[in-house]
Structures are given as C-alpha cells and as structure tokens.
Design goal:
With 257 residues, the chain is α/β, with parallel strands linked by helices. The protein has helices at 22-34, 72-85, 90-102, 142-154, 159-173, 227-236, 247-256, and strands spanning 2-5, 8-12, 43-45, 57-60, 63-68, 114-118, 138-140, 178-184, 193-197, 200-205, 216-221, 239-243. The chain is built from seven helices and twelve strands. Strands 5-10-9-8-11-6 form a six-stranded mixed beta sheet, with helices on both faces. It is globular and about 45 Å long. It binds adenosine monophosphate (AMP).
Length: 257
C-alpha cells in the first residue's frame, strides 16, 4: 500500500499473505492509509502481486535489545557506537544520522525508502535520493504474526510498528553485503528507532525530539558490494519469517528492566 496526500508521501506498508488472508489484509492496509496521524490520504494504491512458494527465502527474527537513553544526543551517540561495533566507520555512521536528522531527500524531505551508505567511506550510493531503496516482498507466517503482535503489545510496545520493523530488519540482515541498519520513524510522535546489526535489533529511545517530522532508514553496505544484486534482493526477493528466534525471551528481559 502506498498512500499520499496532495502529492506528498504519507504512508506505505505491505504484507506477504496467503490467498485466504488477502481480503482482510487489503482492508487493514486501506484503514491504515486513511487513519494516518499526519493526515488522511487522498490517493491510495494497493498492489497485489503473486509469489510462488518455491521463490520464498525463509528466515528468523533478530534478537531484541532495548536501550532507553537520557536524551536524543546520548541515544544517537549509542547508535554510533553500535554501528562502529558492527564494522561501520564512525564518519559513515555520523553522516547517516546527520542526513536522517535533516531530511535525507532533496529539499530536506523525508525519503520514501532507505539510503545505501558505504560502510567505510560514508558515501551515499542509492541511485535516487528521494525514493532510495524500498524493501519489499516481505512478511511473517500468519500464525507467527499474531503471536509476535501479542508478545510485543504485552511488553507495552506498538505491536504493528515494532513487528513490521523486526521483519524488515530480518530481511535486511539476511543480506551478507549489508553490515548494519539504522532507522527512526518520520511519525512526529514516535521517538524510538533502532540499530540492527550482527543478528540483533537494538531499540533506542529517543532518537529524535517530540514533534519532529523527519526520519528514515540507512543501510550500511560493505565496500565493493554488487549494488544491483543487493537492491534486487531487497526489492524483489520474497522473504518470509518462519522463526521468531529469541524475541519472546528477550522482550521479557527488557520489559522487566
Ligand atoms: P517507518 O518505520 O515506517 O516510520 O519508516 C521510517 C522511514 O524508513 C521512512 O521515512 C522511509 O524513509 C523508510 N522506509 C519505510 N518503509 C521502508 C521500506 N519498505 N524500505 C526501505 N525504507 C523504508
């Protein structure tokens, strides 16, 4: 689903679902487009594509960690440290944070997809700096989706948002040429974000100030990676999470903390 308002991107989401779930999920995506906090969409596109079972790449969710910081600056510093531990150069990490904080698309707007950043040099590699790379064709097996949403909401987190981010991070982490991912939302009231690297998704709060409408994603790419193959995997290879990994146990630990 892609929703816009007076030509501006408003929200986008997708699900990899069985035929039996198509109608319910299409309605859920439409409701989401019409109920966005930044305004009601005037244009909504819902596209449905077939995916053969044989094409599916199966994967598991990363482990989960939660870090609440004293403010935006310490949270961003921690993000830099986590990225460095994963092998991202400090300059590359800071470049990404600066770009997300200012609006990474031309005119300091929010991108529709993610930046690709060379993990060593910090150079931006995506062909289109407004669209970026959009991770697509991803989902979680139906029974695990409900299980995950229960686990996440019982921990007091936003079920749909965190579950979807975990699935996206799982697909991104599965790509050997992506060293790490950094994300925070463009929703003005959602201040948490994450660094995903080394099979762990570390939720960081707050990565931005209340009311800030900027956010985005950065994928840190191994130098010399084949960008065509990497982009094709992210945008076209169907990826289905069939294993929740240790999320239930991890979330119990961090909800107690
Ligand atoms: P969200 O987590 O949905 O609030 O999205 C945060 C930012 O991530 C957006 O502003 C986009 O720049 C980017 N983004 C959203 N969806 C995708 C996607 N499917 N693939 C890559 N980047 C995305």
């Amino acid at each position: 689903m892609h929703a816009s308002h007076i030509g501006e991107h408003l929200s986008g989401a997708e699900q990899l679902v069985s035929f039996a779930e198509l109608q319910t999920q299409a309605v859920a995506l439409l409701q989401r487009a019409l109920g966005h906090e930044r305004g009601c969409a005037d244009t909504v596109h819902i596209t449905i594509d077939p995916v053969a079972h044989s094409e599916l790449v199966l994967g598991r969710l990363p482990a989960l960690a939660n870090r609440i910081c004293d403010g935006v600056a310490p949270a961003r510093q921690l993000a830099v440290r986590l990225l460095e531990t994963a092998g991202v150069d400090c300059i590359a990490a800071r470049t990404a944070i600066e770009a997300l904080a200012c609006g990474a698309a031309p005119g300091q707007r929010v991108m529709r997809g993610a930046m690709l950043i060379d993990a060593s040099s910090g150079v931006r590699l995506e062909a289109d700096q407004a669209r970026g790379v959009r991770v697509s064709r991803l989902g979680i097996a139906a029974q695990l989706r409900s299980e995950l949403e229960v686990i996440v909401s019982e921990a007091g987190l936003e079920a749909a948002r965190v579950s979807e981010a975990l699935v996206l991070a799982a697909k991104v982490q599965y790509c050997p040429d992506i060293v790490a991912e950094l994300c925070w939302s463009d929703d003005p009231s959602y201040l948490s974000g994450y660094v995903a690297a080394q099979q762990t998704y570390t939720r960081l709060t707050p990565l931005k100030a209340t009311g800030d409408p900027r956010g985005g994603r950065a994928f840190f790419v191994r130098p010399g990676a084949d960008l065509g193959a990497l982009t094709s995997y992210l945008e076209h290879s169907p990826f289905l999470v069939t294993d929740l990994g240790t999320v239930a146990e991890d979330i119990r630990i961090f909800s107690r903390a």
